[in-house]
């Protein structure tokens, strides 16, 4: 009888130990979450643009708040960032809201590759103004003055290129009416300064570092978008909004009417929910610490405005709590 009781007792102990091990395993799984991810890459844009300037701050906030080492990487911006995200060459991207929409719909620059089905938003950030920049003595005062001129329109497939193409269209022009140059922001302003090009489209939050650098040595103008043309653009492409570049920016002596899209952050749908939540909280919960001029636009209450694509559940959870 004693032997049987001992066997029964040992079996009971073994069962209890297995149960404890299982509980321990479950607890570990529940607690790991973001700790599974040690590094994150945040894909920004060129060094002369707003994405890169803000990206360093965002990377620091994410690193400090989540414990996940995050680095801001130089890139070719919006559409290139979407492509890189699909290739797992980064985990978080800056992207224009219009480009994100094209990606999920498989339109324009994504027509050949097809719709990107797992691209989701973290949140909107700030208006990205489409700026047509030239020198004050260039004789370029309207879009019509671009005909036959050497104009930087950004890389083919970029957000800037799409914006340039659509604004030209509204003004009765096409890429064939100009001598299109595919330059980044820094190359564009350097080209204007050296006389190699006459004007440049630059889609970025103002003040843009590249344009500020040009204004430091030259008198700059930003070509205005007339109210009727802005409305025609918005009627056809509703992700645009009316914007104004205020007097004093780049030494401008009066406000310049313009149009803008939105900058946003996006990730893959498969990013763990807790990680997406922590990223969102790190940025929008610490927006007051962002020193860049565009920091004032980064608010939880407006983060879902104008998105146009699905929002990651982790980000949605954060915004729902606010």
UniProtKB/TrEMBL annotation:
Residues 1-21 form the signal peptide. Coiled coil: none annotated. InterPro entries: TRAP_TAXI. Keywords: Signal. Pfam families: NMT1_3 (PF16868). Gene3D superfamilies: Periplasmic binding protein-like II. PANTHER family: SLL1037 PROTEIN. This is Immunogenic protein. It comes from Caryophanon tenue. The lineage of its organism: Bacteria, Bacillati, Bacillota, Bacilli, Bacillales.
